[in-house]
Amino acid sequence: MPGIESYTRRLLRHFQPIVVSNRPPLSLKPADPYRGVPERLTKGQGGLVTAMTALAAGTSATWVAAARNDQDRELAQRGSTPGDVVEVTTDDGTTYHVAYVDIPREAYDPYYNVISNPLLWFIQHYLWDLSREPVVDSRIQHAWREGYERVNRLFAEKVVAVAARSDKPPLVMTQDYQLYCLPAMVRDLIPEAKLQHFVHIPWPTPQYWTILPKPIRDAVVHGILGNDIIGFQTRRDVRNFLMTCEENLGLAVDYRERTVFYHGRTVWVRNYPISIDPEMLAALAEQPSVKEEEASLAQWRPEQLILRIDRTDLSKNIVRGFLAYERLLEMHLELHEKVQFWAFLQESRQRIDDYRAYLGSVLGVAARINRRFSHSGWMPIRIEIDDNMYKAVAGYKNFDVLLVNPIYDGMNLVAKEGLLCNQRDGVLVLSENAGSHEELGEYALTVNPFDVDETAEALYLGLTMDQTQRHHRAELIRETVRSNDINRWIAVQLQDLRELIG
User: Fold this and answer.
1) What is the Cα–Cα distance from 50 to 47, expressed in whole angstroms?
2) Sequence-ordered list of residues with C-beta below 8 angstroms from that of 151, at least 6 positions apart, any chain
């Protein structure tokens, strides 16, 4: 695969790149004069920001994002005029050009906390308990019109304003599920624009989309079909999207060519499995702060360590992971006092009732298992809730078994990061419904995420696997991740854009 630079030079010759996402690429950490801590600009969190950083910084693309809080609004005021593009450099030396979208709070809350999360997120991860939820009523309808559609319109207007700064037509690269309506809006306003959209989460079957009223679910698909290219994580997502277009909207699709025929245009639908930056991760793994966390871990580490690193999102399936571990302890008394399950978790979306309740379930089940099995100073499950990448990487380096068992997941980069960092030839226990299974499943221990007995057996096999097989599997995963890194993820998309543009 040729380098990214050759593609970007070709694209930038005729187009102005614009990245669009809800989340901005950087965060402002205010100064704390009482502690003597200066103001800091740090790279934003999340896989989306990490993935797009290389492209945005390397092309001097303008990044259009929401001003979500007071810190973002403070950064937005640093342009030469209010609402202008702001040039900022984070503490790692990366320079970004950011155009913040000023969104009224009364619009952002229903856009983000009613429609994007949980409604669309739950649909795209198959999370609804359909006997009870969702209840689509006037509140949802209002949140769609005055929240989701309104915010997407504000984003589209900002893209148009940014595009007007250049005499080149824009190349708009939209990210994820919060902005499905935006591409069609931009195409209406700038017909000469080229538009590409990458969806980081799963795309469910056409039948599951019918949870939503037809006007809303059709608006989602019509909006995203405003793009020239639509990218997903897996081949399954591509098939599901094509079927959605065919079955729910009656559109003509070509499954072999992976295209949809829409309003006289041919829309390409492709899968681009997202990945990581191996060199950056290797450098992080050698940081002194990681080594300090490793020294701390060594003080309590058991003979064998099962690890999971996750947000406390319902899709991550943390409770069933604990139940599988409980089953393991029931069946294998010889593992008592020799193994520990370390769940290193980060709180997620605690403003939403279902997420707060789920965190309570996670803690409750772990406490029950610990009460049942703890003895002689041994605690079967260790839970830590923190946001500490150094500690996470220390865990990556030292696990014996890594459990990644989401109900459904777009990719799940933990599976890739963990095995790449690990120094013990750790074994990956991987859900067949994780996007990463399409690449890594052959070398992992595959489980059905709902089957706790099968997951317990996989955990046991991972703990008892002979060293030769452990090393062979781990090496194949590492080779796969290194070959299909974040640079390749970007380059393949740019190659398709170059073919499209000609």
Assistant:
1) 5
2) 66, 101, 103, 107, 108, 111, 178
Identify the CATH number of the domain in which residue 346 sits. 3.40.50.2000
Tokens encoding 378: 């041994």
Number of domain units in the chain = 2
Instruction: For 114-193, list the strands marked E by DSSP.
Output: 170-175
Q: How far is CA 257 from CA 198, 242, 253, 265, 267, in A?
A: 18, 11, 9, 14, 10
Q: Do both 64 and 50 map to the same domain?
A: yes
Q: Is the pTM of this model over 0.85?
A: yes
Over residues 280-316, the pLDDT tens digits come to 899 999 999 999 999 999 999 999 999 999 999 999 9
| Residues 361 and 478 both lie in one domain | yes
DSSP E strands: which ranges in 67-115? 86-89, 95-101
In sequence order, what DSSP letters do the residues of 21-68 get, joined into one string?
-SS-SEEEE--BTTTTBPPEEEEPPSHHHHHHHHHHHHHT-EEEEE--
Between CA 295 and CA 431 the distance in angstroms is 31
Closest of 31, 216, 264 to residue 116, by C-alpha: 216
Q: Specify whether 332 is located in the same domain as 460.
A: yes
Is residue 140 one of the residues assigned to a domain? yes
Q: Which residues 6+ apart lie within 8 Å of 204 measured at CB? A: 123, 124, 126, 240
Q: Is 68 among the domain residues?
A: yes
CB burial of residue 490 (10 Å; 0-12, 13-18, 19+): buried
Boundaries of domain holding 250: 4-275
On whether the CB atoms of residues 275 and 486 are closer than 8 A, the answer is yes
- Report the amino acid identity of residue 44: G
CB–CB of 72/101 below 8 Å?
Answer: no
pLDDT in tens, 5-26: 565 666 667 889 999 999 988 8
65-101 pLDDT per residue, tens: 999 888 888 888 876 666 688 887 777 777 888 999 9
pLDDT tens readout for residues 203-213: 999 999 999 99
